[in-house]
Amino acid sequence: MNFANQTIWTGDCLDIMRGMNSDCVDLICLDPPFNSNANYAAPIGSQAAGAEFKDTWSLSDLDNEWLNLIASKHPALYRVLLAAMTDSDKSYLVYMAVRLLEMHRILKPTGTLFLHCDPTMSHYLKLVMDAIFGRKNFRNEIIWHYSGWNKRLKSHIERRHDIILLYAMSADSVFHPPVRHWESKAEYIRVRKQKVRTDDEGREYVLSDAGGGNRVRRYLDDVWEIPKLNNSDKERTGYPTQKPLALYRRLVETSSKEGDLVLDPFCGCATTCIAAQDLGRQWAGIDVAGKAIELTKMRLRNELGLFASPIHRSDIPLRTDLGKLPRPSSHKKTLYGEQAGNCEGCGEHFQIQNLEVDHIIPRSKGGTDHIENLQFLCGSCNRIKGNRGMEYLQSKLQLS
Questions:
Q1: Which whole number is the average pLDDT over 293-320?
Q2: Each residue's pLDDT tens digit, 219-274
Q3: Where are the domains of the chain?
Q4: For the stretch 5-26, what's the b/e string if a residue is b when 16 or more beta carbons lie within 10 angstroms of its beta carbon?
Q5: 7-177+219-313 in CATH: which number?
Q6: What is the pLDDT of residue 236?
Q7: Can you tell me the distance from the alpha carbon of 111 to that of 114, in angstroms, rounded to the nearest whole number?
Q8: CATH of region 328-399, choose from 1.10.287.70, 1.10.30.50, 1.10.10.10, 1.40.20.10
Q9: Which among 247, 295, 248 is positioned nearest to 270, based on CA atoms?
Q10: Distance between CA atoms of 27 and 183, rounded to whole angstroms?
């Protein structure tokens, strides 16, 4: 991999992941925005005070160039996005789709991804994931059920669960069936309705143990009962959407081994990073809020007793897996043929000497010199676009 263990980035995970080498991550756990139509902020005075984010979406949040790239290179995924019922849903799904495409690229062939969501968008996100990872690589829809205050509702049943979609990269992906140990012999006997017997040497056993004296492992199904954090929980930081450490420990244990690299692209208060550290995994996190690095340091110290100093970065890593790429100008003839001599911006036809090689995704946003990230623009369009995305150029051309 082209970055160090225990790195926390402040920035857009799309830009950061574009700079990561392909096939370098073993496990991705993400708890992104849910399109909940709400804005979140940590309470003043809490450990996470200052952390805030919006979870409302409109077409102004949609980078049209993301949609253009998906339409040209991922037609099946594009058809899924067209099924969105509202502008808000479409904006959210395009935002997620371009990031999930990068996650698919950076996962190893034995890698796994857990996507945490809720019923608001889970059905759409599963279609997006099917288009990116393939339906055959869907493994589970895990239901995280939790308790809460009883309320009398007039129009719907109480909603007390989140959904975690599990996708594997291949049949060789790491998987350890999650188990929960019995709390006591009494619990085991009560739940399994077993009669305790005694052998000739005075050892107790039950028939389901085949006389071995070992309790049968308790394999978990896809409904997980784990309490939500309440205000008195020691691990609570005040971060608006903080999830229980027990939940993310189970995810990390299920689909990684000691020493594996775990990435959380929306790390927030670093629950995934803390779980990975506690279980002997390498880890990295990304979050747009600068509060993530502070919370990571604090939780490593308070919950694990480690006075670690995670690496804090805001720059985009440089890929080292592409080898030495030829200079962009060396692709002029190929690009001219692919675009039939037309400028990708204004669409006008030019002689080859009047077209300039441009990076579709700017290098400042993680774009590379690979030919798939190159295009021909006329001199005028290239000056307008500068070091920005194609959506800026298109908006300027529409106004002129």
A1: 85
A2: 778 999 999 988 888 888 777 778 999 999 999 999 999 999 999 999 988 899 99
A3: 7-177+219-313, 180-218, 328-399
A4: ebbbbbbbbbbbbbbbbeebbb
A5: 3.40.50.150
A6: 82
A7: 10
A8: 1.10.30.50
A9: 295
A10: 29
Cβ pair 90, 64 in contact under 8 A: no
Structural tokens at position 87: 């502008």
> CA 294, CA 86: separation in Å to the nearest integer?
37
Q: How far apart are CA 242 and CA 31, in angstroms?
A: 9
Kindly give the interhelix angle for 75-82 and 87-106, rounded to the nearest 10 degrees. 150
**pLDDT higher than threshold 90 for residue 16:** yes
Instruction: Return d(Cα 80, Cα 125) in angstroms, integer.
Output: 9
Confidence of residue 100 (pLDDT cuts 50, 70, 90): very high
pTM of this prediction?
A: 0.82
Query: Is residue 94 scored above 80 in pLDDT?
Result: yes
- Between CA 346 and CA 370 the distance in angstroms is 23
Choose among 132, 138, 133, 131: nearest CA to 163: 138
Query: What is the Cα–Cα distance from 167 to 132, expressed in whole angstroms?
Result: 10
Per the DSSP assignment, residues forming a β-bridge with 7 are 284, 311
